[in-house]
Amino acid sequence: MSEIVFVLGGSSGIGLETVKKFINEKYTVYNGSRTECPVAGVTNLTVDVANPETLSKAVENILSEHGKIDIGVYCAGISIAAPAEKTTRDDYNYLFEVNMFGAAEFVRELVPVMKAHNKGRLLFVSSLAGELPVPFEAYYSASKAALDAFVSELNIEFNQFNIYATSIVPGGVRTDFTQKRKIYSDGEQVENLDKATQKLATFEQQGLHAQKVAHAIYCQAIKKRPDVICVVGLKNKVQYVASKVLPQKASLGVIKYMYKQENNGNNARV
């Protein structure tokens, strides 16, 4: 019997390429998203990650047909570029619903199924921003840091049931995620906000191809003992390791330099 893969957020970007990868490898693949995935061979289920009932219904549909889910891949995510103190409660609540709490609901639905079969792989698309926060992306960066900690803890609980969780950590990726980002217009810091957002867009559109991230997801899914944190791309691995080695002030100084943050017309100092 073919292994069953459930990709949440497979209609575009990394999720779309992940669906393609598993389809090409002859897995039975389901996609859960608000917009259908156009890949031939995938079964689409309507899921809004901010509405847990839609996720529960999707899982029920899969189980009614196959009785199991072997691999779960959480690709849902949104981004907001805004001054931290001016981001609205509605916006940051929704961002955490999608980036973090939706992942928690994903675990609540899939883990009991995987425990029953004493086998499972859970993979979550995170970001280097969880370790190296992006200017004016405070809530996005915080949500990814929370996701990484969440994934690490899942392994403490579930490895005994042969269930392994992996946080997939790319840096910039060439997808339409860049164009979908909500950007605030702020008169007080508008120059720094615009510069940071434009720089981030450049990093993303000159970054990894989504296919490379999808390949990393697939490789972790089939490993006997997957990594807890899988950083994708050599440059990103170097930055990730450097962030662990350098003093925190030095790491923040590098980020400020990369994004050319200014303070009262002068270069910001650490």
Short overview:
This protein has 270 residues and is an alpha/beta fold. The chain contains nine helices and eleven strands. The protein has a single domain, classed as Rossmann fold (3-Layer(aba) Sandwich).
List key phrases describing it.
270 residues, alpha/beta, Rossmann fold, seven-stranded parallel beta sheet, two-stranded parallel sheet, 11 strands
Secondary structure topology:
Layout (H helix, E strand, L loop, with lengths): L3 E5 L4 H12 L3 E6 L9 E4 L5 H15 L4 E4 L5 E2 L7 H29 L2 E6 L12 H21 L4 E7 L7 H4 L1 E2 L6 H16 L4 H13 L6 E3 L2 H12 L2 H12 L2 E2 L2 E2 L3
Parallel strand pairs: 1-2, 1-4, 2-3, 4-6, 5-8, 6-7, 7-9
Antiparallel strand pairs: 10-11
Number of helices: 9
Q: What name does the CATH topology carry? A: Rossmann fold
Strand order, main sheet: write it out: 3-2-1-4-6-7-9
SS-derived structural category: alpha/beta
Counting DSSP E segments of at least 2 residues, the number of strands comes to 11
Sketch the topology as an H/E string, one letter per element: EHEEHEEHEHEHEHHEHHEE
The biggest beta sheet, please? Answer: 7 strands, parallel
Distance between the termini: 57 Å
User: If you average the pLDDT, what whole number results?
Assistant: 92
Helix content: 40-55%
Highest CATH level, the class: Alpha Beta
Q: Determine the strand fraction and express it as a percent band.
A: 15-25%
Radius of gyration, taken over Cα atoms and rounded to an integer in Å? 19 Å
